[in-house]
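Chapter summary example.
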Amino acid sequence: MKLDGYVRVSRVGGRSGERFISPDVQRERIHAQAKASGHRIVKTHEDLDLPGTHSERPGLQAALERIEAGKVEGLIVARLDRFGRSAIDIHRNLERIKDADGVLLSAVEGIDTSTSIGRFFLAISAAFAELEIERISENWQAARARAVERGVHISGHTPVGYLRQEDGRLRSGAHSHAVTQAFQMRAAGDSWKQIADWLTEEGIPTAHGAPNWTIATVRTLVRNRVYLGEARSGDLVKTGAHKALVDEETWQQANRPRGLRMASTGNAAGMLSGIIRCAGCSFALKPSMGKTRHGKRRREYRCRPDKAAGRCPAPASASALPLEKFVVGQFFDAYGDIHARYHQRTDERSGIERALTTARAELAAALDERLAEALGGESADAYVSVVRRRREEVDRCEEQLAELDDDPALLPDPTSLRSTWEALALQEQRALIGSAYDAIFLRRARSPREPVADRLRLFTAGTAPPLPIRGQRGEIRSVDVD
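The structure predicted for these 482 residues follows.
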């Protein structure tokens, strides 16, 4: 047979001893074994100063590609550990050779995969590969649990206000006072934007080192339980792992749901956000806080005249309360008789939802490139196996929830939409109205006392004219309301 030879040395310089097989010695053994077996070596590939655990060895890859291309019939090495040290790596490359109808020969061990003994070795290597996958996964889980128990902060980023010590644990840092102040501000009712502006003005860098804070980065900070002194990874939690920068009561107060969701601008969002639009330009009205002519603060929806698409010719605005009251009345006139079933909140359901949240977090962690690198790359069997198992756990939890949703025994009697409306969260109310109406257009008032009902046109689902899409330039387009 025509074979290619393969030579690998992890580190060449200054090495000696019986465990060190120099490139020259490897070549001699390869040629001697090939000659004794009646084979001919066509080309010898080398990977010098590359460890056997390195998955992308160019010399080995070139040899495998020549076998797959049919240029040679197999590969010969001086010793099996030159082919690879990982059982997973050995098995994966053996499969490539097998799929190409090639053979692998090893001079020292006398392995020849074209023989029955060689094929037995192939089966054994597959078994050891599976064992190694399990071992790596178990070691990773055990190491993660031990790290959390020691109070190690596993995330790749050090939270603002802390410093990471050599042992991986956190201690309070230079900006800890600013973090505590940010929680207190939020607990007192300050908006995300107010806190973001304050942190920026104070010169506090974000966790990624950026000088400017955004609403999103402030939300991430305030929702992070690391500031309660917890070390965690998925469902693993260690309390008292490091000094807390905020007490439990302040953390809960800072994270309590507000009556109004904060929009991306930092202004209070309303029930009709994204639904109510200006008839003068078709763009969505923005919820904001304004004042009456007597100086009292009020929520309102207002068109911002200047847009990338041009200037609105007739910007509309209206007080939020009468506008929302009229739209809700119209909604109930059309859909008030609807009854719905609501899933009962049970300990079982809560447990599955917590498990699903943990499984999703674990899957997200598995998809981190650092884990892929630690397990040999994204194509490594160990990494693929970890991701597969975590994805299966997500699927299992989702299936359990679906089974609960389909169980008629867990569904109470239908409840009228009217009777449950006030108990719904603002986002739920907005979602229901948005499912009924594609858009609601408001034109500019012709007089200070013109009723809001005379200024509206409601488009039910599937009937609205073309609407500008957020993030795209769009164009100014008026809609007739009268």
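To summarize the output: The longest strand covers residues 40-48.
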